[in-house]
Amino acid sequence: MNINKIKSEFPIFSKKVHNNDLVYLDSANSSQKPLVVVDRIYDFYTKEFSNIGRSVHYLAVAATNLYENTRVSVQKHINAKDKDEIVFTKGATEAINLVANTYGNKNLNEGDEVLITELEHHSNYVPWHYLRKSKGVKIEFAEVNNDGEVTLESIEKKITSKTKMIAVTHLSNVTGAILPIKEITQLAHSKGIPVLVDGCQGAPHLNLDMQDLDCDFYAISCHKMYGPTGLGILYAKKKWLEELPPYQGGGGMIGEVKKNDISYGDLPNKYEAGTMATAQVIAFEESIKFLNKLGMQNIIKHEKELMEYGRETLMKNNSVKLIGNPKNQGAVLSFTIEGIHPHDIATILDEDGVAIRAGHHCCQVLHDKFGLPATARASFGVYNTKDDIDKLNASINKCKKIFDKK
User: Fold this and answer.
1) What is the CATH number of the domain that holds 372?
2) Exposed/middle/buried for 125, CB within 10 Å: 0-12, 13-18, 19+?
């Protein structure tokens, strides 16, 4: 891939940060946006705007068709069997909450167990915690090993006769570990257990095939896929969407409303109550086109090379400790520097225009496991280069010199 050409498609990189070129290494938090996505939002609001699914005038029909076109594009991109298995949400967080609320309230009772992992982002823990508080559901944690990965064996060891849901990340936003989702799903289904996957990091960096993975639910965060904020996707097998109750009530999700009863709309309208994020949905089709133009295999190859070069570079740097060494790793490198708090690292790097994240990355359980209050994290996207990693390393060396003088 011609990275310089790709980078030129992102307006943000024309900006200087503290008089330095921007080195953006925070894509696991949120990716930057190509101009085609930004322009699509502007064009919709200025030339095509209408609410969808209600009026029959020209603008409303056209907007509804554009909205539904994106649903079909998502279906094809992730190889879902049916477009009605694609539900638009406010984000991956809402997608997971939707499943926890609908599946949890219908199927989970006191003493039932939800199995998650020590790698989970808070978005795939807190919603299940609510059920622990309200219904007495138990939460079990599959353990992470010293390499920062969760194996199939660690999942299997925690499954009991009371396990009623397995909810796991696809790709860790701290260690970069890629979990064996297909094998986990096969194991779970052999015991009659559904599987939810937090795909926030998986969707931007991996080739997705829902029919091959065979998971029951898959949550996607669009703003990490070079798309707009305020938008997520829940993939759910049609049988679950037909069986589970609605998540929210309001306009757009009803069939018929009478004083004594209410029926609900067809799929997926049943789960899309109220006025949806229409501009974001329509613009997200440009994100999918952008990814398809580059090719997911090319993206995977490029990011693997970056990750390997990053590991090699930082491992040579004295005092830098990488967090985890998974056998199958995505484009995330978390690290610490002896004697320097990660927030100080991030602040000093920012002076050089190098943007990383510092903190617990919404993964406090994992940081507690490793005995760390926080880590620094560099995460890669399609616009990053090995030169970005060299600049990261140079800024780290500057950071060490500053603290050596103190």
Assistant:
1) 3.90.1150.10
2) buried
